[in-house]
Amino acid sequence: MTAAESQTQLTEPHNSTAPLVDTKLADRSQLSKMYQHYVEMKDKYPHALLLYRVGDFFETFFQDAVTVSRELELVLTSKHGGEAGRVAMTGVPHHAWERYTTQLVEKGYAVVICDQVEDASEAVGLVKREVTRILTPGTLLEEGMLKTSRNNYLAAVVIAGNHWGLAHADISTGEFLTTQGSDLEHLTQELMRLQPAEVVVPTNAPDLGSLLRPGETSPHLPQCLPPSFCYSLRSQTPFTQGEARAKLLEKFNLRSLEGLGCDHLPLAVRSAGGLVEYVEDMQKANPVTLQKLRTYTITDYLILDHQTRRNLEITQTVRDGIFHGSLLWSLDRTSTSMGGRALRRWLLQPLLDIKGIRARQDTIQELMEDTPLRQNMRQLLRQIYDLERLTGRAASGTANAKDLVALADSLSRLPQLAHLVADTQSPFLKALQKVPDVLGELAQKLHAHIVESPPIHLKEGGLIRPGINPQLDERKATVESDQQWIANLEVEERAKTGIPTLKVGFNKTFGYYLSVPRSKSDQVPDNYIRKQTLTNEERYITPDLKEREARILTARDDLNQLEYEIFVELRQEVGEQGEVIRNISRAVAAADVLCGLAELAVQQGYCRPEMISGREMMIVDGRHPVVEQSLPAGFFVPNSTHLGREQTKHPEEKPDLVILTGPNASGKSCYLRQVGLIQLMAQIGSFVPGTWAKLGVCDRIFTRVGAVDDLATGQSTFMVEMNETANILNHATARSLVLLDEIGRGTATFDGLSIAWAVAEYIATEIRARTIFATHYHELNELASILPNVANYQVTVKELPDQIVFLHQVQPGGADKSYGIEAGRLAGLPDVVIQRAKQVMGQIEKHSKIAMGLQNME
Ligand SMILES: Nc1ncnc2c1ncn2[C@@H]1O[C@H](COP(=O)(O)OP(=O)(O)OP(=O)(O)O)[C@@H](O)[C@H]1O
Prior knowledge:
Bound molecules: adenosine-5'-triphosphate
CATH architecture of the domain at 607-816: 3-Layer(aba) Sandwich
Structural class: alpha/beta
Shape: elongated
Distance between the termini: 77 Å
Strand content: 15-25%
Radius of gyration: 35 Å
CATH class of the domain at 607-816: Alpha Beta
Largest sheet: 7 strands, mixed
């Protein structure tokens, strides 16, 4: 029976023969003991999928079975549930729970793991089971469930009127930050930046504990929260000022929150306290260590709204939503996953502080100038594993022995790294010069204790080296000597019985046995006790053999247990050093990002931009960092940019606003984005694609690029465009960079042209933001003759008799034609249509000189 068939059958109304799918419809007193316990547990977690350990499986029952079978395409079956009848069931093998759970969590479900906590063979009555783990998208720790290249954020929000608090943590790395603000639009934008896997929201909803999957709505969810995330609806109590504050003080063992910088920020405190409470509630058996809470202010960073991040394709492309072809793709030369995550964070949160930017630039420069240092560092960094997450798993008790070996290997690279950077001067390299002694000692201890290549399982022995623990060695010796005794037994018994083919064997049911061919069974001595008869062989045991076997099995259990205890102690020691390891990990990650950026700058021939506090933007021979890498070397045509120069006798040479015209596909959008990306790269401290640059720090970059229907919100292309334009006009300042592509295209020509004109005029005269305005409306070129801070630029083409050659060069002046009709001709429009189009254009141009009626407009 397929999953689909079984599901159809089970979703039919319940009758006496169909399996039960609804716990509420089941007569609990008629259920057998285990199912009664299951239903009790399910009552506690009504909104999660409950995976219940039964023998070698994790099973789901009732309605959860239907959901799991549907989502994982597993066969839905049923089991006898006692007098009440059969119960719907879907199960997964216990060793594969991580794989299946990952899929469920990725689909936005919360999963509760209820495991057996006593040995089934020793249980009296029902095996004892407890909830050992609750997994939600934002509270994952397991290696296989996390993406190495990005943080997995859990966020918590508190909203009070137009004010908000937002805390976020990555519990796999320990990062924990909080902020507050006073415009709900900023909260939306900050959530869009973080892209949290899960957002915790305090509500008074009746269905507390439920997890809304992306796209699911609830009247209890504030409107400003974007629908694309998972939301956990929680009680408001832990988010009250008193509770939240107390929770933070307790968590970080503090008397006051002053040191955390959020004492005076009640909403930041409430969201952070609520988040800690939630994490503690989710992590039953594995307490999570978070780094000390840090407070930040969103206005301390360059603000990029969601549209701008999207349009500039910072982490993924607009068209396909993929990493390949994004800015991050083109810049990432990091060697560690910690560095990869840090680069992503930097790109989504560029700096405003010139000192901070210069410190990063200094480091890049030093690494560019010293090629051996850079190469050696990169080589060494490649040998450093994900220290942040390994430490997280150690501290929460989920790390295995392989994790600790990887951690020790990585820690032992740190002194080598320190040695390599011993003579460096820049701040980010100096931070690596001193490795706390305790880490070297820890690495040594781990290496000394754990075998080089340990097994994944922790309770089956083989983890700890000899010579570490006398008791362990003693037990090992006993087991080995007993095993030797058994090995000798074969030889001795062969000699004794004269049966040369006698063998000693082992199986799970009988343990050790002596195997003799049936033809020789009459030669066995009296002390052999027959245990099993097979086609060609007889199997025997002897009292001596059984005695040894009992000794071996007990000693081996003891041995494994002792090894496990030694391992757990080591793991705890690592956890205790969590903060020290994570501090140095952060330094390694930053150095890795900068080393990668230095490598990139050398490979691609980037320059160090001079960062200034004024508004000037000068880029000589700038290039688009992504398009350049996608074209064969030397094919990209560089272009310069001069904007916003304040002290100049010829303001027209350094305009605030550039009207950029040029035919389709000539390279206007590419140029526009290139300017935005160079500014953004400069503000993360990177060198930039160009031969020389001087850049005033921007407070925000705005883009309005291309026309895309927002079908999800039912808005037309034109309305989306107008909303975005309104947002820019309402928020841009003289320190912003505004990149506008084709404003006014989505409506009638004259409406569009009029809006485009008015928008450009407003930006140039009222806001004075540095702006590039790409347009097909050549009429806008008139603005330059009226406003002193507007200039015209065009992307040039060469006209040949039967084709247009794109030169991709941006030069002063306005294009007087758009070549749209030529493009139509090349595309095969009939000649008569082309001729008529030219006639109509001539007529329109005659009557549409805006400049002529300009006095009337003013
Ligand atoms: N400076 C450049 N050097 C080399 N190739 C370029 C350059 N600029 C753009 N191109 C190439 O030209 C193509 C078209 O560029 P782009 O999309 O920017 O044109 P456009 O003028 O904005 O067109 P439209 O007006 O139709 O949107 C790009 O895909 C790119 O490959």
